Amino acid sequence: NHSVGILQHPDGTVLKQLQPPPRGPREQEFYNKVYDSDCCDSILLELREYLPKYFGVWSPPTAPNDTYLKLEDVTRKFNKPCIMDVKIGQKSYDPYASAEKIQQQVSKYPLMEEIGFLVLGMRVYHVSSDSYETQNQHYGRSLTKETVKDGISKFFHSGYCLRKDVVAASIQKVEKILEWFEGQTQLNFYASSLLFVYEGSCQATTVRLGDVTLAEKRRVPKGLLSGGDVLEYNNNINVINSTENGKIEASVNKGLSKFYALHKKACSKRHHSQLSLKVENSEQDNVWKTSTCITQEHLNGNVLPQLEKVFYHVPAETKESANVEVRMIDFAHVFPSNTKDEGYIYGLKNLITVLQNILDN
User: Fold this and answer.
1) pLDDT range class, residue 78, cuts 50, 70, 90
2) Most buried among 26, 112, 313, 320, using CB within 10 Å?
3) Which tens digits make up the pLDDT trace of 236-251?
């Protein structure tokens, strides 16, 4: 469209070209106000938690009249970032928009007022094919009340399974932003978005389940340990020693065939009594030991199809474990107010409902 998109600066920030007046100066003024070093307004100070960090403006030496907003790159810490941009609110035009502008915006997505949000685009990493699937704004505009749930759930699908841990973590983040909006009457936001980012690769992610810590290093579907505890599991797995406080770490490096062989052997030695995984860690080696936990019936027959049934989804209990960012972006249409931003609140609540439905169903 003959315009400059988001650029990456060598220092790890991103550069967003300032839009023409009045939009660009309005967005710059918003960032300057929120990130003013003398700011002591608790509402604005809390708002910083939900925005990309702001580092002022920047101009290239070769084009000093070109101005860019210098912002935190929210995706930088991720190996395979999955990204979704969702415009929030019942109106994508501000109170000063002309009749022509209003008509133009409404015609783009007539359901905006009813649904309260619009998916502007997404990029999802599929572990199964080691590739990205991309959807643009036309995809979002095609979604109806009946299809919006499935349309958004596509963002949380790895190619193998639905990332329920990411959905749950996203709900928590959006709820925090909703709490902020419920408590402020200073600002109204129009045509502003939420940026969702999560780690698509399973490498170097850590999952905490109660007292169990699991280190996930490859594509890891989910397995059942005992008493409802969940064990991250793949064709290669090893459980290594618990830490001093009793937490268990699981990492991927032992063959599954050996895993079964060890268990069957142990089961035979113990006259088919109940088994469990106990852990022993030494500098020399890591050894499987058995106690009482996994019953013999789990080892009988073709166990893989049975395991796949329970491995398919990550349970909601892992919601705090997922590496997820949800940030507010795009502030060219932010205006002072003395009332709650009901349109934005409406959109957040509807989005939370859709995410919760994805999680529950």
Assistant:
1) very high
2) 112
3) 333 333 344 444 344 3
Contact by Cβ (8 Å): 53, 306: no
Residue 293 CA, chain-centre distance (Å), reads 34
Residue at 197: amino acid letter: V
Residue type, 150: D
Contacts with 213 (C-beta within 8 Å, 6 or more apart), sequence order: 206, 207, 243, 247, 248, 249
Given a contact cutoff of 8 angstroms between Cβ atoms, the answer to whether 222 and 334 are in contact is no
| Whole-angstrom distance, CA of residue 48 vs CA of residue 54 | 9
CA distance 127 to 158: 6
pTM summary value: 0.71
Residue 223 structure tokens: 């397995």
In the predicted structure, residue 34 carries a pLDDT above the cut 60: yes
- CA distances (Å), origin 114, targets 105, 130, 145, 172: 14, 37, 9, 23
Question: How far is the C-alpha of 306 from the C-alpha of 312, rounded, in Å?
Answer: 11
Q: Are the C-beta atoms of 189 and 89 separated by less than 8 Å?
A: yes
Rounded Cα–Cα distance for residues 119 and 128 (Å): 24
| C-alpha dihedral (313, 347, 16, 28), degrees to nearest 10 | -140
